[in-house]
User: Which sequence fits this backbone?
């Protein structure tokens, strides 16, 4: 293959011409007036002129396998590191979340107790106002007032004493009538 001629692209030909023949003849390259021997190089000349421009051969099966193994190793290492950082972040997040949940729970319980206390006080206040209003309305309308519990108990005891005497008399009368029969 030493004597064969190879057709090359213009940029590579200019580079090879500059290396082989010096830059004197290549100054005409912008006008397209390049000598034929500058565009047609033998394979050895082409290899000499473009030593760094040669494409390296594709890797063989063992090299490919080594590259794949190394790639997989690095991939797993990166993934392990990412997962580790994520777990650590989640642990810190859960720690903060636990504290925050306890704080929120205490605050919610406090707010709930306060809400129920306010509802209870409002209910008691409304009932008291309603009783006062009813009392005033009854007084204005001439309806007798409701008695307090102590007054009602005292009155029922007084009535009960009178009723109890009458009941005992009627029971004794019915017993005597039963004996006569």
Assistant:
């Amino acid at each position: 293959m030493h004597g064969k001629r190879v057709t090359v692209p213009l940029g590579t030909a200019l580079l090879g011409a500059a290396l082989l023949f010096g830059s004197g003849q290549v100054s005409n390259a912008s006008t397209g007036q390049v000598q034929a021997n500058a565009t047609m190089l033998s394979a050895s000349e082409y290899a000499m002129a473009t030593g760094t421009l040669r494409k390296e051969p594709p890797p063989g099966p063992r090299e490919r396998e080594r590259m794949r193994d190394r790639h997989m190793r690095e991939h797993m290492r990166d993934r392990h590191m990412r997962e580790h950082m994520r777990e650590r972040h989640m642990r810190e997040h859960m720690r903060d979340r636990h504290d925050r949940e306890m704080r929120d729970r205490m605050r919610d319980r406090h707010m709930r107790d306060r809400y129920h206390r306010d509802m209870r006080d409002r209910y008691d206040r409304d009932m008291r106002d309603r009783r006062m209003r009813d009392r005033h309305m009854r007084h204005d309308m001439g309806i007798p007032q409701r008695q307090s519990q102590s007054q009602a108990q005292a009155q029922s005891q007084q009535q009960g004493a009178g009723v109890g005497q009458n009941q005992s008399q009627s029971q004794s009368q019915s017993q005597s009538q039963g004996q006569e029969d």
Summary: The helical segments are 10-21, 36-39, 43-49, 61-141, 149-180. The chain has a mean pLDDT of 73. The chain has five helices and two strands.
